[in-house]
Amino acid sequence: MGLKSMFRVGYLLMIGQGLLSVFAPKKAIRAATLSWQLGFENVDELEPREWYVEQTRILGVGMLAAGLTGLLVSDAETAERERAAAEADTTAAAEDAAETDASVTDDDDDDDGPVTIDV
Predict the structure, then answer these.
(1) Are 23 and 56 a contacting pair, CB within 8 Å?
(2) 107 in a structural domain
(3) What percent of the chain has pLDDT over 70?
(4) Domain membership flag for residue 117
(5) Largest alpha-carbon pair distance within the chain?
(6) What's the domain count of the chain?
(7) pLDDT digits (tens, 9 = 90+) for 12-62
(8) Could you tell me if residue 46 is inside a domain?
(9) Which DSSP letter does residue 33 get?
(10) Contact between residue 70 and residue 14 where contact means Cβ atoms under 8 Å apart
(11) d(CA 30, CA 50)
């Protein structure tokens, strides 16, 4: 799995987290505090303040925008790279064909007449 595919997975995870934060910010906060339950007592009794819920929603919009932008840029770079590779293959094939035509033409120019062999 290459670095570009890992970026793609990261962008998809960011989009998922952004969607959760935008549409269900309290669930996103609860998911973020799951790891705290290991080190603290009564974490499940905590209730987030309204401003924190709104902040989570706004950050979710930013994560969603960043994830979508990264995914689109990554896809555009991949498409551009594939187009350039196809163009390079076409150019290489055209150059090979031109060399083949040139070598056939060069063989015709070397014709000095009949060949005689002494026996």
Answers:
(1) no
(2) no
(3) 87
(4) no
(5) 111
(6) 1
(7) 999 999 999 999 999 999 888 887 788 888 877 888 999 999 999 999 999
(8) yes
(9) T
(10) yes
(11) 14
